[in-house]
Amino acid sequence: MVKQRKSQRSMGKQKGLTLILITMVLVVFLVFAAFAVDVNHALLSKTRLQNGVDAAALAAAVKVSAGETDATAQATAIQTISTMYTASGNTEISVPSGSINVQFSNDPQDFSSSYNAALDTYVRVSVADVPLNSYFLSYFGFDKAGAASAVAGPSSTIINACNVVPMAVCADTTSGANDFLGYEFQTVYELKVADKNSTEMGPGNFQLLDFGAGGADVREYLAGGFNGCVDITSTVTTKPGASIGPVGQGLNTRFGDYSGGGVSAADYPPDVYVKEPTTLASTDSEGNVVYDNAWNYADYETESVACTGSVSGDCTDGEGGRRILPVPMVDCAGATGGTTVLPLTAVGCFFLLQKAPDNNGAKDGVYGEFIEDCTITNGSTGVNPSSEGIFRIQLYRDPLSGES
């Protein structure tokens, strides 16, 4: 009897110990489950924060590349983040304005050195200490906070461009000390000639390219609707004929002129600033461009800044940069006229100085000022950085966080 009572007491102690152990294990499981829920939520919130700073950095970099001030770019970045987190699905995240930091640099890998706004600009947008909702961690005395950052800016020179215009200029095969393939910056050139005998492409050519389209497509492509691509290591084919009407109707949408029909403001909005020079450029009897240089791209950049939010005078509610044309630059050596296949050397950037003629009575060409660089909406980049030619705005790996 004594042994039986001892055995019963021992079993009772074991049951009590087992209950304690099970309770402890359940508590541990609950803690891990709580951590799992909150950690997964934190990762989701981190993704949302990263998407926000990515969009903000890209938006700010686009503003800078379009000639806007750093202050405007900074305001754009902050507004983008604010808009992101008032959208459906993101409202549980609230980013305090004091948590947003916007930095500018001339090097995407160094935001601590001196900065010159006149050079290529890269934008870093970061958020820190953003409070995140906690489901269970708060019961254990823990708070959740998120952070994210992104860097955006101009890419290396594009080698495969997908939104060029179907016009071409004859270029040298090499660049000199003060020019790019024979074209001097801040100089006005004739991008499409009015006299078929004055072009190096030979008789019958007016510097148009054949992108496999008729007059209606030429009009749309010059308005900005070409979705094909050109490879600067390949060739292009000339399109004989003047196509004066379609050319003028397409290009002049960039000035808000849709009188020729066939294209609409909804599809092809004007530039934000449509001013033309008081004295228009022209070509003399010897084929030389005549222009007094009283108003040029630098003036456009300065004056168009005042168009932000304004629709009056020469300011519109259009899109910035519509007057910047990515124009193929070809090697015309050996061109014989008619339909000709020419080597593509590069894509140059020209500022559309004035409206193009849109009727056969006009004897003027299309005039543009050669500028250093410009953005395109799509294309693949090479491996060699360059301050000349076309580029696109892209995200870079953030050296301070490893994100993007």
Characterization of this structure:
The model has no long low-confidence stretch (mean pLDDT 82). The protein is elongated, with a radius of gyration of 31 Å. The protein is α+β, with helices and mostly antiparallel strands. The strands form five sheets. Strands 5, 6, 8, 11, 12 and 13 form a six-stranded mixed β-sheet that branches. A four-stranded antiparallel β-sheet has the order 1-2-3-17, covered by helices on one side. The chain has a three-stranded antiparallel β-sheet with strand order 7-4-15, with no helix packed on it. Helix 3 (215-225) packs parallel to helix 4 (244-251). The chain is 26% helix and 22% strand. It contains five helices and 17 strands. The chain has helices spanning 2-65, 70-84, 215-225, 244-251, 297-304, and strands at 100-105, 122-132, 144-154, 158-161, 169-170, 187-192, 230-231, 235-237, 282-283, 289-290, 324-330, 341-352, 366-371, 373-375, 379-381, 389-391, 393-396.
Q: Biggest sheet, open or closed, and with what strands and sense?
A: 6 strands, mixed
By secondary-structure content and strand pairing, the structural class works out as: alpha+beta
Total DSSP helices: 5
- Number of domains in the coordinates? 2
Q: CA-to-CA gap between the ends?
A: 77 Å
The global form is elongated
Instruction: Please identify the oligomeric state.
Output: single chain
Mean pLDDT: 82
How many β-strand runs?
17
Order of helices and strands: HHEEEEEEHEEHEEHEEEEEEE
Low-confidence stretches: none
Strand content: 15-25%
